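Quick one: structure tokens for this chain, please?
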Amino acid sequence: MYPELKSPQLYTARGIDQVKLFVDAVKKTGREKPESLKNTPVIIQSFDEEAIRRVASDLPTVPRVFLTSKDEDVTEARIRELAKFSTGIAPEKFVIARHPEMVARAHAAGLTVTSWTFRSGEKTDFPSVRDEMQHFLYTLGIDALFTNNPDLFPRR
């Protein structure tokens, strides 16, 4: 399971603590326990840094991925900061394409790298979405990706 905590601050402004609701649901079902994570892996993702920080504190056994579309989030200093509370970073693919060295920096900091979203029919410099995914996975070395075309995933 790869749930995304979307716009937690919007819910907070409406008097709803989305992060607490999520954490409580995970704990109620025991999804944070190592044996559960082994059978049904859970990775939490969000663009909201505060949400990821809270989940790191409240659910330390559950992997946490910080989503971003910003170039400034893949600098060496920022990656070191993210590694204090995240287990991974998920830059949009164009950010990785502009800063391919960030993959090695993230790995050196102990972070996984996931990218998004790969889809056929999108205008890119690659002959196909399979070629694009292959480049990101096997040339740039990212760990995972989101795609609208799982049937075209380039397996080795």
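Strands lie at 44-46, 64-68, 88-91, 112-118, 144-147.
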